Amino acid sequence: MAKLVTGGSGFIGSYLVRELVRRGEEVVVFDWSRGGRISDIEDRIKVAQGDISDWSQVMNAVKENHVDCIYHLAAMLSLPSEANPWASFRVNVLGSMNILEAARLFDVNTVVFASSMATYGLGIEKPVITDTTLQRPTT
């Protein structure tokens, strides 16, 4: 069974992909861009180039690769989102819905969603962020 990493060629995603490969996992990267930070390991992974907001592309990536775990890191960050709210909605909301629906339809055991430090806002008083840390998003 494969591990699907959305946004796997991004900054955080590329580190996750490398760690999964190091552990011997079968890794499928689903991303709109190809190469970049993971071009040197493309011979050890499968890259499914696609648009997270396209329902059929997401469904096909999950079904065809027999995915049992999805790491959902595909996202449009704050500044680009503010400049283009519609694109942000398509990627961040519709894309997440597509991932959750694919997981439901194809009995994916695990979905891991990576959020953002921005959800905690400014002025965090604790040195370590836990599940109980109060969130005060600024965006």
From TrEMBL:
It comes from marine sediment metagenome. Belongs to the NAD(P)-dependent epimerase/dehydratase family. Residues 4-137 form the NAD-dependent epimerase/dehydratase domain. This is NAD-dependent epimerase/dehydratase domain-containing protein. The lineage of its organism: unclassified sequences, metagenomes, ecological metagenomes. Gene3D superfamilies: NAD(P)-binding Rossmann-like Domain (3.40.50.720).
